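Narrative summary of target 7.
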Amino acid sequence: MNLDEITKSLKSGAEKLALQTACEKNKSLEAVAAALDSNRKKIIEANKKDIDAARANGTKESLIDRLSLDDKRITGIIDSLKIVLAQTDPIGEETAGWKTPNGLTIRQVRVPLGVVAIIYESRPNVTVDAFCLAYKSGNAILLRGSSSAYNSNKAIVEIIKEALSNVDGGVPESIELVEVKDHDHSDVDAILTAVGKIDVVLPRGGKKLIQTVVSNARIPVIETGSGVCHLYIDDTANLEMACKVAENAKIQRPSVCNAIECIVVNKKIADDFLPMLAKKFDGRVKFHADEYSFNLLSGTANTSVEKATDEDFGNEYLDYECCIKTVENIEEAISYINLHNTKHSESIITESHANAKLFQAKIDASCVYVNASTRFTDGGEFGFGAELGISTQKLHARGPMGIKALTTTKYLIDGDGQTR
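Modeled conformation, tokenized:
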């Protein structure tokens, strides 16, 4: 990989995009949407190569699900792109403005970040999401996907670049994909140390990837977190609702970052709730239970349960496994969650308005829910169309990252000869 040549091309692309109107960028995105639609066969054939290789390598099915594309998922990708396309262009938005006593006019306006890099695992839909958000917000993007999704990502990027080349005003040099080789991460090191060439890098994936990027980067990082998400069942909870939400948050798609990994249960209702939960899950999830919950679950029919170890608390399973932790009260639940979470998404099931307010006020996470599944932490569900990731840090951006998360501001000052 010649990073100097790649970043030089991307910078040129970013400079061109920064001058384009919303209409010009939208025209290009419309062409990309049409190209993805007409090249479904190429994408699915490339994706099949990745899936076959993953299965041959013994990858578990929950992770293959993250990798897989079909007609329905491609339609979803295109729909997300179209939602981004329809959104208001943030570039040039005046976020503040005033006139100083000496007559200077000061305006704060929104501008692109420039050249953005994203390092991500599996999930080839991220390739399109990242591209369309970057393009719409006037940024060029360098994509470094995983080797497991390389064929899929390569096919998608080829389709995007061809579409941009064929549309008047398109900027094909605004997107590049790093060629990935198994077990070779030298390109990642080069990206993380590309001071002056890449403006910001985003890691999107598991704990190990994120820690590697945060620990080694010499360029700015927007940290997107792994998802150790919790569901707290309060002593005032509607237990039928609690079972329904738990099923959705754990089982609907266990391999994604907004699925729950631990169910925290108030002991006052544990004797009633845990057998109901076991019945609802119907053997589909393996429980890693603390002492109190183990005694309740081990006698339940069609339930896989083992005693939890210290490593289970705060673990991201990304599979049909779940930790069960019992607590005396909401204060203990909040303390436990804040100690073991990754600042992603947390939820409480409660009929107490006071407990709901306390939970939302004291839980340290980017998204805190009351009586709802954590599975809603998603750019599409929030109305952003797509997302670059879920930021779990507190500076610049937090939560699902849409278009504005890829912008910064600068001050434009107009005068008529003022001196200081």
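The chain has a mean pLDDT of 94.
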